[in-house]
Specification:
Structural class: mainly beta
Radius of gyration: 13 Å
Shape: globular
Distance between the termini: 39 Å
Helix content: under 10%
Number of strands: 10
Number of helices: 0
Order of helices and strands: EEEEEEEEEE
Strand order of the largest sheet: 2-10-9-4-5-6
Strand content: 35-45%
Largest sheet: 6 strands, mixed
Length: 119
């Protein structure tokens, strides 16, 4: 299986921004659709966003539309999640995962990166 690696999490105040990164050393990520999934404390995993391999189209859960942007940098072989106007309820561990056709049939996962939004 592919091993993904997330980075970029941290502690930020409400209203601020963070950019998460997802890398897959030794793998051409442009061959994969990639999703971001989060898990808040005491809750199940929640799909957040996906970027399609085929056409680069992007998809978001309603809660983050207009605030989060998923993108791909093929030169860097990475996928990003730009998170703006962060809210306390965005606090979670964020994972990236392979997701064929953005169907939420997740394949390989990373270890996750913690995002905490708090004063």
């Amino acid at each position: 299986q592919v091993q993904l690696v997330e980075s970029g999490g941290g502690l930020v105040q409400p209203g601020r921004s963070l950019r998460l990164s997802c890398a897959a050393p030794g793998l051409n990520m442009s061959y994969y659709s990639i999703s971001w999934v989060r898990q808040a404390p005491g809750k199940g995993r929640e799909w957040v966003s996906c970027i399609m391999r085929r056409d680069g189209s992007t998809h978001y859960v309603n809660d983050v539309k207009g605030r989060f942007t998923i993108s791909r940098d093929t030169a860097k072989n990475m996928v990003f999640l730009q998170m703006n106007s962060l809210k306390p309820e965005d606090t979670a561990v964020y994972y990236c995962a392979t997701d064929p056709l953005c169907s939420r049939n997740f394949g390989s996962w990373g270890q996750g990166t913690q995002v905490t939004v708090s004063l």
